[in-house]
Amino acid sequence: MTPELAHALLSPWVLALLGLCIGSFLNVVIHRLPLMLERDWKLDSAEMLGVAIEAPEQITLSKPRSRCPACGHRIAWHENIPVLSYLRLGGKCSACKTRISPRYPMIEVITAVLFVAVGWRIGAQPTALLWCGFMAVLVALAGIDWDTTLLPDALTLPLLWAGLVAAAVGLTIPLSAAVWGAVVGYLSLWSVYWLFKLTTGKEGMGFGDFKLLAALGAWLGVQMILPIVLAASVIGAVVGIAMKIGGTLRQGLHVPFGPFLAGAGVAVMLIGSATVLDWLGWV
Predict the structure, then answer these.
(1) Could you give the CA distance from residue 270 to residue 30 in angstroms, rounded to a whole number?
(2) pTM, whole model, 2 decimals?
(3) Distance between CA 215 and CA 155 in Å, rounded?
(4) DSSP 2
(5) Chain segment 42-63, per-residue pLDDT in tens
(6) Model pLDDT for residues 69-83, shown as the tens digit of each residue
(7) Residue 250 and residue 8: Cα distance in Å, rounded?
(8) Residues 6 or more apart whose Cβ sits within 8 Å of residue 54
(9) Hey, is 67 helix, strand or coil?
(10) Whole-angstrom Cα distance, residue 247 to residue 95?
(11) Which of 278, 226, 267, 3 has its CA nearest to residue 135?
């Protein structure tokens, strides 16, 4: 790819448009992937127990077509244009006028902004698309974990392996930094989990958090593990306290940690490892 073609294909406007389209797809992933997992779990459990159950509705990321949850109206293509359709419809279903959550265009805009930020950080080169993929998976994981307190292996493990492979072929960081980042990322939260469980008898986080931090370590390096955990912990504590004061803390007083890990990973990537280490005085 020539520099001129790279600049044209990876311009901020192109990345923003790509981000809007990918963000629209991420809304589908955030909504449907947990439903797909729940369906599989029910069928697997029934098979293990030898119990006959009525098979839940078949659902994939592409089928059935998107529809209004209130009236069942099938969403036409012109009602599914990122951001623009939401604005044109006034944030309501065209059939029953039920309000559409503003989170859908928010996810689209956030993804577009992150893609443009990656282009600014990496420059007009093919590896920018690799990092855009990194951002997209983090957005999906953050949304799913916030809704369901789940971090699906279907996303965390490919993100982890993609980070290791990208390092192995020389696209991101040295392979040793990626491998140790994955190891330290996983074991650090694994150790905290067991220490908390042995002292309190309760589980403070899920295994998905271990895998997510391992994936972040594979992409960003072992030196970024502590800054990511510190930033995620501080932001998570502030948000949790604010939700408790505002009376919006979910039942069980549980705030998922995954969205804050993802957010901290995004921040570290965009700020740059060298700048983060300089702020911490580690260089």
Answers:
(1) 23
(2) 0.93
(3) 10
(4) -
(5) 888 887 888 877 777 788 888 8
(6) 888 888 888 888 999
(7) 46
(8) none
(9) strand
(10) 34
(11) 267
